[in-house]
Amino acid sequence: MTSPRNLKRPSRRLISIFGAASAVTAGVIVGGYALFGPGATGSTSAAGSAHVPPGGNVSGDVSRAAAGNGPGNAVPSSPGPTLALRSGLPGMPPYDPSDLYFADRPNQLSAAVAGVPSYVYVPNSESNTVSVIDPATYKVVRTVPVGQQPQHVVPSWDLQTLWVNNDLGNSLTPINPRTGVFGSPVPVSDPYNLYFTPDGKSAVVMAEALHEIAFRDPHTMAVQDILRVPCSGVNHADFSPDGTYFIASCEYSGQLVKVDTATHKLLGVIELRSGARPQDVKIAPDGSVWYVADMQANGVWMLDGDSFRVTGFVRTGLGAHGLYVSRDSRSLFVSNRGEGSVAVLDFATRSVKAVWRIPGRATPDMGGVSADGTVLWLTGRYTADVYAISTVDGHLIARIPVGKGPHGLCVYPQPGRYSLGHTGIFR
After folding, report:
1. What's the CATH number where 223 sits?
2. What sequence ranges are listed for the domain YNCE-like beta-propeller (predicted)?
3. What is the pTM of this model?
4. What are phi and psi of 260, to 5 degrees?
């Protein structure tokens, strides 16, 4: 392992919902908490203090909307009557340091997606199409041609657009999720995967074949900056609690890179063990651990993000690939593509508490959790189908035929104030 530079974190002010009177940007009460995000009402002061918009009520429990009591949908214990938020990267909505996903509770949709119909968008990499599934009927309702080798369908930071990543087509196809209209492709070089900075100022294109991370305008996709990375196959990432840095995996060289979000500078490189194939990256709700799926090591690496060092490893199953947080912030779903299973990792114990086997031949890859938290949707990368899996007991609800090579499907809309990209990382 190399000796990465440590990132000195800026001081973070504790923000109380009952702070001094100030205007609050995009403040909205959801599940008893004051949230901040696109489409909501209110304003925020330069001082960073937050308070509730007129008529708001901050008392309550975000768990009220939770349903069921399975591993992925249990009703969490009450976090108390108020929520203290912290400021992070300038321009980024305040966050809860104890639970980064506090705004992702079941059915707690942002006002920005009010009226948006619910669908599952499946990019078929080998068919150059996107299949659209109605989650109520588990049926494909339409199939739309897009560019060459679509890899992921990615929600924009402001929740208004879905971007189809046409990797070999060197373009992004925009989808209006409200109308279902597929727009004209936007030229973008090698868009294998796509993220957005927590402040919404940049789209972050993982240009895997070019060994680059490209920072672009989040709307026009015009280039802002290019970072050349000293690794091969950069593709998946997640952001620190305060948004000041992100960690990305490099699949083909078995490395991880740490990047400063604001300056776009490389902060460090980790060399995993020989033959490692790191995939998806996901931070724990309390920010204490980062998990990196490794399809060659058959499990997830655990990292300390601030010191940027490996702290442990948990075996989950053959071909560990995608990582998805449950709606109660208690579990991490790990798709094991090599054995056709999903491991349920408990954040509290950092151990696997259940393994769900998908009947028949199955190759679970990328996906997301339904808005109500009861269904985990995953693509069958090499079986040309999509799996709908119960998060209560892991049984297969439906197996839906789609095009060839289905990859990074997107369940939309989902709860959350804004999107960090990929197939839906919402905070």
Report:
1. 2.130.10.10
2. 116-410
3. 0.84
4. -75, 125
